[in-house]
Amino acid sequence: MNALLDVRGLTVELPTERGWIRPVNDVTFTLAPGETLGIVGESGSGKTMLVLALMGLTPPGARRTGEAWLYPRSSNGNRSGTDNSVQRSTRRTDLTVANSEQIRAIRGREIAMIFQEPMTALNPVMRVGAQIEEAITVHEARVSAAEAHRLAVAALERASVPEPALRARQYPHQLSGGLRQRAMIAMALAAGPRILIADEPTTALDVTVQKQILELLVNLQRDLGLAMIFITHDLGVVAQVAARVAVMYAGRIVEEGPVQEILRDPRHPYTVGLLRAAPRLERGKVTPIPGTVPSLNALPPGCAFAPRCEFRRTECDERVPDLRRVNAEHTARCVLVAAEGALST
Ligand SMILES: Nc1ncnc2c1ncn2[C@@H]1O[C@H](COP(=O)(O)OP(=O)(O)O)[C@@H](O)[C@H]1O
Ligand code: SF4
Ligand SMILES: [Mg+2]
């Protein structure tokens, strides 16, 4: 199987005053080398918690079950002489049970993450260049200071930061919002990860800068052969960056398939609602989805979308619908999809 990341039945449970909740519920997907998977869903659907679980960053007290296999670099893809983790280069790792040392070796070097707010990643009192140098030397202790500096400036240049040597000497607050985002991308990619997780990286930016950052990410993804998980609440953004999309609702994937097919022929009423609510895609009047995301403490017994669904019928409330196959590449968790296509999950 040609997977870089193989996530199977990943579930995250969190303790709350009203009992355990499952912000991530039985999530299964694979990511192939060089592929971009979009993850889309309204705020609160579990997108961030899903990727935090992959990075070993769930809140204290959280329980994780399921598997998340990170596959090794192919042998000719190894950076011989600088790779100090022989085990990592030969065996797959289950990220859900990896210890803190393994996770430290993976973060930045195998999987890197960028966020909506660059200041989550950047240290306000440290020069931008020094932060990128640190992101490199934490994995490659033998790199000299001069070499680390050269690599940091090159990373800024690769992220299309103008005057990279000058910017490297500046502090994050001296950079515009768009440049800070580029600096965060440079830092994320500095240690040569294979997977980039982008969690709503353009949500806070104005439309022009957003477009530039999306273009940059698409170019970097292609040039570096990166695999990318791109999270957004906006299906219109997904269409610009990803070939495949997974739609999340109340912790579960409710539809998954090729982006263009899902935009043209969505099969889950929630995806239909997201499309109608996307200003970039909807030519007619933009209509928000009625109702709100259900509380994870009080999910309906059947389909979690049922209270908001205009197609609801009796069987929707009996049990959580299985993911059903629309075709070889497209699935949806809805009783409206012909039952004979049900997956054996
Ligand atoms: N530390 C936490 N404790 C309890 N619930 C949390 C915590 N963090 C997130 N949640 C809940 O988990 C759900 C998913 O959140 P999140 O992954 O941030 O969604 P998204 O990124 O899709 O907006 C939400 O209902 C949120 O309230
Ligand atoms: S399973 Fe039923 S309630 Fe859920 S989305 Fe499909 S039709 Fe609507
Ligand atoms: Mg989020």
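qc> Residues 1-110+193-286 form a domain with the Rossmann fold fold (CATH 3.40.50.300).
qc> done
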